[in-house]
């Protein structure tokens, strides 16, 4: 590439500073697909003979196989994956190889490769999301009748089915799946043909190339085609949000597996020990996922910052997109898989969960609702039940065991049904609004998700 223009060879420092082959080699499969489609278009336009095309195609396929088998040696002197492959092809097949880069620049090539690569990775990530949803639905289904306290402010609030809690994550993950879908949709445009920035005087059939590579559309502005990485930002953002969801789920597991909560136990296969304290069984698996969310956010901010202030059109800064993208894709794929495995093997401690959910104070709101049914304004009902709760807190007598004289004094309206008001199942059955935690709703939603996920 330097032969024509430069007399001196590149400084070794610049070579090491600028190389991307150490990480962009993983675009090789998509680089080769893109090059074959480009070569086919060159042949159709008359810039390659049939024979030249055939030797390019078979040469590229051979190189692809060697890279897959780990038999190809990359050179940092050739900077990136695009030049490593092109140079090797030319070394092997001669002039035909030297024609491959006709009407193409690495600027449109790298954007094409990256989109092709990410479309595949997104499909894998979406499968990973579905697998985790399946694990959560499986766990929910196996424990459909188990109740836990629901929390706000991490204070016990109202009882909910454990399944309802797990299904909350299934809904969140479904939006993650949707965000990945949207990202793939907008990414689905072929930039090849944009050239370095101003397309080419040698015209190729871009629509044909798009079709061969599985792109739905071609980009409509050559400067935009080589310039923007918003498609990568959208993915990093979708993965940052996904990471946030996985982190929250992980935090719940960290809490649930404490002795203090005791709602669940990690399987031995998904727990770690302490090098010092023999009794410890630690949830490192969940903590790591919580911690790795930092990278997912960091990668998003790193690329946002790289892109900010770049003048039109391609700038070498854009090479800094790749490590952030690769790291987020790898991290998210692993986190999904690990979390799915951990949730599948999680052991629910039904006794602890049930006993915590039977805390009568969790039904205080139900007492107020009952008074409303008897035509009392809600604010007044809230106040009266608050007095009972305060008495219970002060004396240590559970709400349902308070002396009848006190009930008669503070809210005589509840006197008759008092004993029956503290049944969490009765409470849940009444919470039957769409999205509410009634057992019928939960079982309907479980059936829905099972039908989607199988
Ligand atoms: N390795 C480069 C990148 O990742 C490829 C494009 C280089 N283009 C250039 N004109 N130097 O962005």
Provide the descriptors you would attach to this structure in a database record.
Ribonucleotide Reductase Protein R1, domain 1, mainly alpha, two-stranded antiparallel sheet, 454 residues, Fumarase C, Chain A, domain 2, binds arginine, Fumarase C, Chain B, domain 1, single chain
Describe this structure in words.
With 454 residues, this protein is mostly helical. It folds into three domains: 12-102, Orthogonal Bundle (Fumarase C, Chain B, domain 1); 107-355, Fumarase C, Chain A, domain 2, CATH 1.20.200; 356-453, Ribonucleotide Reductase Protein R1, domain 1 (Orthogonal Bundle). The protein has 19 helices and six strands. It has a two-stranded antiparallel sheet with strand order 1-2. Strands 3-4 form a two-stranded parallel sheet. Helix 7 (106-142) crosses helix 19 (439-453). The longest helix is centred in the N-terminal third of the chain and has 37 residues, at 106-142. The protein is elongated. The chain starts with 11 loop residues before the first helix and ends with a helix. It binds arginine (ARG). Arginine binds at residues 20, 80, 106-107, 110, 316, 318-319.
